[in-house]
Amino acid sequence: MSQLMHRRSLLTLLGAAAAAWPLGARAQQRERMRRIGVLAGGLAADDPEWQSRSTAFVQGLQERGWTHGRNVRIDFRFGLGDPERRRNYAAELVALEPDILLAGGGAAAAALQQATRTVPIVFANVVDPVGDGLVASLARPGGATTGFMSLEFGVSGKSLELLKQVDPRVARVGVLRSVTTYEIAQFAAIQAVAPSFGVEVTPILLAREAGEIENSISAFARGPNSGLILTNPGVTQALRARIIALAAQHRLPAVYSFRGFVAEGGLISYGIDQAEPYRLAAGYVDRILRGEKPSDLPVQAPVKYETVLNLKTAKALGLTVPDAVLVRADEVIE
After folding, report:
1. Which residues partner with 175 through β-bridges?
2. Contact at 8 Å (CB) between 301 and 138?
3. Is the dihedral of CA 241, 243, 245, 247 positive or negative?
4. What's the distance, CA 152 to chain centroid?
5. Nearest of 84, 8, 76 to residue 43 by alpha carbon
6. Backbone dihedral region of 292: left (phi > 0), alpha (psi from -120 to 50 degrees) or beta?
7. pLDDT reported for residue 16
8. Which of 227, 101, 207, 104 is nearest to 160 (CA)?
9. Cβ distance 325 to 255 under 8 Å?
10. Domains of the chain, earliest start first
């Protein structure tokens, strides 16, 4: 799906609200058109995950009185995990002279900051905004950037605990990650609790080429009693599908970072609702458009994590899911 088609789908979402706006009220409400630039760092326009996140953002704006075509225009650009593409689109969005920018992920936020230090930036789903240099501190961001995090490092060990609960036989865990600072920190958090679960953990680096990740997972799967944990929430739809397929092929129980993996056939996930930070970001965008400063709005960490389980996948792996996990799950996909 092209960027234009994705934008049209969002316009469809808002069309009813715009049409229902009384003509007299529209005439009286001659508001200045505001402009929002949105840069998605890694996901494509047709990725179901991006569609749920962007829809949450647009709905959040609508709930606060911002309707596309009436008082706001939203411009979307997609970095697709390519640094040069992100930089070019960040510059392009800034050239459109937006009132505010939304960054989907840390890489997108960094690209926008390189393009401007004056236009306000609200980010969603950033793991380590202080470590990445996006803000001075969580409580006092400073500058023109603030937003919503997708993880606190302390919860990373919960994925390993959940994996052992689902399959107590697991003794070797491959942690799929890239070389970002936050994923290294997540791996360290998992590694720190591994001895208490009697598990040996091994990093498996994510790669752009499907063949590389296939070889890495296949090689790891040759060992007995193996399982997987994926720390990176921003992998593309194609790579998500390949990882899920490889886990099934090698009969590896795996814990993923958000619900989308489980909906697409993965075993279990532990993480936040990835659309929620976008819904919350709409609130910050609204407040900034109405005059508040980003530096006065603290960066917010997640307050709720969810566990989603795919029972069909569990059965395919020959696993009997303990009642404790079933009770804990926020959603069970049959």
Report:
1. 203, 229
2. yes
3. negative
4. 13
5. 76
6. beta
7. 45
8. 227
9. no
10. 3-150+273-296 (3.40.50.2300), 153-271+306-333 (3.40.50.2300)
CA-CA distance, 155 to 190, in Å (whole number)? 9
Closest CA to 104 of 238, 274, 232: 274
Tokens 């070797």 identify what position? Answer: 172
Crossing angle between the packed helical segments 156-166 and 181-193, to the nearest 10 degrees:
50
In the numeric block, which tokens belong to residue 254?
């795996």
Phi, psi values for residue 200, rounded to 5°: -100, 125
> Edge-to-edge, what's the strand order for the sheet holding 145-149?
72-78, 34-40, 100-104, 121-126, 145-149
Residues of the chain with pLDDT under 50: 1-4, 16-29
Q: What is the 3-state secondary structure (H, E, C) of the chain?
A: CCHHHHHHHHHHHHHHHHHHCCHHHHHHCCCCCEEEEEEECCCCCCCHHHHHHHHHHHHHHHHCCCCECCCEEEEEEECCCCHHHHHHHHHHHHHCCCCEEEEECHHHHHHHHHHCCCCCEEEEEECCCCCCCCCCCCCCCCCCEEEEECCCHHHHHHHHHHHHHHCCCCCEEEEEECCCHHHHHHHHHHHHHHHHHCCEEEEEECCCCHHHHHHHHHHHHCCCCEEEEECCCCCCHHHHHHHHHHHHHCCCCEEECCHHHHHCCCCEEEECCCCHHHHHHHHHHHHHHCCCCHHHCCCECCCCCEEEEEHHHHHHCCCCCCHHHHHHCCEEEC
Return the structure tokens found at 157.
């060990």
pLDDT, tens digit (0-9, with 9 covering 90-100), for 215-265: 999 999 999 999 999 987 677 777 889 999 999 999 999 999 889 999 999
